[in-house]
């Protein structure tokens, strides 16, 4: 039926009820119910005087490696001790760790800041902190940690450098780290402490401070330095490629009897494009004959029309983390709870560059799968020699057969280091969700059955998101931590006693963030609050999302939500009924299983049911058809009921539209006259059509 009002001269105004769908309506209500991304949380933090590079947690103390300083903090991140590591006076005639003060006024002496390139814990010989800096050829110092006073790292400090004896090879096993970038992994095997080191090197590194691209060295039992077991305990990029073929070592880890490094480097000597590689060799292989490299690709695929698939490759790794899965993710990936998973945040680079863009993806692969892939590819002979280490004309590169024994360790005489040519591919876990942001940090922990990732961005935002392969997830925590990028260097302490925490570095600042999240009041709607992961312990209290201790006076619930009505469109309709009414708001159709359900939802307008249209309704919008009314009534009492309670509103009116005047009252037969029709409630309903006699008059 079309409700209408007439005027004696034959004008009819139809007030249409059944009209176009309300596309785009309720956007404001949806926006108001979104998670508050501007919320501020007060968290324990410490600000150093200089930028922070590394963090180590040991016996409830936090050791921070920064430019020119090592700080010791307690569990609440209060500074309890500082050790000065720089600036250092350097002179070509001064050996590392030698006092050079008498040469301070010489023209070839220079003061250099000491950037902390590696901060490591070693507990086999003593409880000690090993710090390696960017000065003095990359040598390290060891700080004895006293059991009765872990804050004291100053009383006993030893330089880990031994001057070479005449006749020794032109080498420097004590020159450990590169000022251009390094990754160091410490392992303890068979009563020996080994340091596996990956360094970015260029032609500027020259004797006596020789640095190797990748190496394994043993900590001497005297602990005053290191030793290479053989002249095969290191691999170097050939001198002619050191400046044109940079390798950045992003992450290192040990698993079972293998050591792994993750790198970003050019796809080949002849290519300008960059990609990510996994390096693997055996922990006990002092000559690294078992060394292999393999490309690792994180991809996002999107199905498009006509069955075409768009594939994007996120080629450069920004940060990585290795941890075990929760029960849900382990089941989805066909893994056990003790299987290790490598997680990585990848970015798309600028063309022919290793510089990242603001487009990221997150990929995960089990270490078991990495090993199976290596083995499968070796069997297929999809390999070639490492040209940047050997050169294209090397005898290794001219040999076409590649052999590997079953264990891939304890290499035979005819085995040597090689490169796998087939990439291991994995798909973005979050389906393109982070394709407009640069992710710079990741760590992963488990709570109950869930696996949760902490993510950081280049703009200083911290996020938490549940990792799932079976259903889409979105961040349940997202707040601005700082204006500086979140560092890849993170520490996770997942203790049962205090629910655990993560230590996150941004520039000169380190912040302690609870694993259960910093709080709950960034959730602005009840349904968001109650659908948060259980370990966050969020509940609804007095129109806010809070934890139970923060809700002393109100009713704290984790079960039900009453809907909120924010706006009604239209706000009035003719008495005849039939108008489509749109209720904008949030928490409509809430259910604990996160599925939109309307079976218990009833809308009453003035005591009568407004018939719901489930297909055109959602969590921010209800559409229903208004019943007829006998008499006009304004701001009538209405409600949305959901079984356990109801939400009242009184912003809807029934009106009787009336035309009171028309101007002008006549016009030429040819038409074209602009009419002005005045009256009451002519804007009710959702649309209007005007007829003069039986002919339509288009509404301006």
From TrEMBL:
A GO biological process held by the record: regulation of cell migration
Signal peptide residues on this chain, from the entry's feature table: 1-24
Pfam families recorded: PSI (PF01437), Sema (PF01403), TIG (PF01833)
Membrane topology recorded in Swiss-Prot or TrEMBL: Single-pass membrane protein
Sema domain location: 27-515
An annotated Gene Ontology molecular function: semaphorin receptor activity
Compartmental location: Membrane
Any one GO CC term of the record: semaphorin receptor complex
InterPro entries xrefs: Ig-like_fold, Ig_E-set, IPT_dom, Plexin, Plexin_repeat, PSI, Semap_dom, Semap_dom_sf
Keywords tagged on the record: Disulfide bond, Glycoprotein, Membrane, Repeat, Signal, Transmembrane, Transmembrane helix
PROSITE patterns the record matches: SEMA
DNA repair as UniProt keyword: no
UniProt similarity note: Belongs to the plexin family.
Name the record gives this protein: MET factor
Gene that specifies this protein: Met_0
């Amino acid at each position: 039926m079309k409700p209408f009002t007439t005027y004696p001269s034959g004008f009819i105004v139809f007030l249409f009820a059944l009209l176009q769908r309300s596309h785009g309506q309720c956007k404001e209500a949806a926006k108001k119910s979104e998670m508050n991304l501007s919320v501020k949380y007060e968290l324990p933090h410490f600000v150093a005087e200089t930028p922070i590079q590394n963090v180590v947690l040991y016996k409830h103390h936090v050791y921070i490696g920064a430019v020119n300083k090592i700080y010791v903090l307690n569990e609440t991140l209060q500074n309890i001790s500082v050790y000065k590591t720089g600036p250092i006076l350097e002179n070509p005639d001064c050996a590392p760790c030698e006092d050079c003060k008498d040469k301070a006024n010489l023209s070839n002496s220079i003061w250099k800041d000491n950037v902390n390139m590696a901060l490591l814990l070693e507990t086999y010989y003593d409880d000690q902190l090993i710090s390696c800096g960017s000065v003095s050829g990359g040598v390290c110092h060891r700080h004895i940690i006293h059991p009765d006073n872990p804050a004291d790292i100053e009383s006993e400090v030893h330089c880990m450098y031994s001057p070479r004896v005449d006749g020794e090879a032109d080498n420097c096993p004590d020159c450990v780290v590169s000022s251009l970038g390094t990754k160091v992994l410490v392992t303890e095997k068979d009563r020996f402490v080994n340091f596996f080191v990956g360094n970015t090197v260029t032609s500027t590194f020259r004797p006596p401070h020789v640095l190797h691209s990748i190496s394994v060295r043993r900590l001497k039992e005297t602990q005053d330095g290191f030793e290479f077991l053989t002249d095969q305990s290191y691999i170097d990029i050939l001198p002619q490629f050191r400046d044109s073929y940079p390798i950045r070592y992003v992450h290192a880890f040990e698993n079972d009897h293998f050591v792994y490094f993750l790198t970003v480097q050019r796809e080949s000597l002849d290519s300008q494009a960059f990609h990510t590689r996994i390096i693997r060799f055996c922990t006990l292989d002092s000559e690294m004959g078992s060394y292999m490299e393999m490309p690792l690709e994180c991809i996002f695929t999107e199905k498009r029309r006509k069955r075409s698939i768009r594939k994007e490759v996120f080629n450069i790794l920004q940060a990585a983390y290795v941890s075990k899965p929760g029960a849900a993710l382990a089941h989805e990936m066909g893994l056990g709870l003790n299987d290790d998973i490598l997680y990585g945040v990848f970015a798309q680079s600028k063309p022919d560059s290793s510089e990242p863009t603001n487009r990221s993806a997150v990929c995960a692969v089990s270490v078991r799968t990495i090993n199976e892939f290596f083995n499968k590819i070796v069997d297929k002979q999809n390999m070639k020699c490492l040209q940047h280490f050997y050169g294209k004309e090397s005898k290794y590169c001219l040999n076409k057969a590649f052999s590997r024994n079953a264990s891939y360790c304890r290499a035979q005489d005819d085995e040597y280091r090689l490169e796998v040519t087939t990439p291991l591919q994995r798909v973005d876990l979050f389906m393109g969700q982070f394709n407009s942001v640069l992710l710079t940090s990741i760590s992963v922990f488990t709570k109950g059955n869930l696996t949760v990732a902490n993510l950081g961005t280049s703009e200083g935002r911290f996020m938490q998101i549940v990792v799932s392969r079976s259903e889409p997830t979105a961040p349940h925590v997202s707040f601005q931590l700082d204006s500086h990028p979140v560092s890849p260097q993170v520490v996770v302490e997942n203790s049962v006693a205090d629910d655990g925490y993560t230590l996150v570095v941004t520039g000169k600042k380190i912040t302690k963030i609870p694993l259960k999240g910093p709080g709950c009041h960034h959730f602005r709607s009840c349904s968001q609050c109650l659908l948060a992961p259980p370990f966050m312990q969020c509940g609804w209290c007095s129109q806010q999302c809070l934890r139970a201790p923060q809700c002393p006076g109100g009713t704290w619930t984790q079960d039900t939500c009453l809907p909120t009505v924010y706006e009604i469109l239209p706000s009035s309709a003719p008495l005849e009924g039939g108008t489509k009414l749109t209720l904008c708001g949030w928490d409509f159709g809430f259910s604990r299983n996160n599925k939109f359900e309307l079976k218990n939802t009833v809308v009453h307008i003035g005591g009568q049911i407004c018939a719901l249209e489930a297909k055109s309704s959602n969590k921010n919008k209800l559409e229903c058809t208004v019943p007829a009314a006998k008499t006009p009534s304004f701001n009538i009492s209405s409600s949305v009921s959901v079984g356990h309670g109801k939400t009242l509103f009184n912003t809807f009116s029934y009106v009787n539209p009336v035309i009171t005047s028309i101007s002008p009252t006549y016009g030429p037969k040819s038409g074209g006259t602009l009419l002005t029709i005045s009256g009451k409630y002519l804007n009710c309903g959702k649309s209007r059509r005007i007829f003069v006699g039986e002919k339509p008059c288009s509404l301006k």
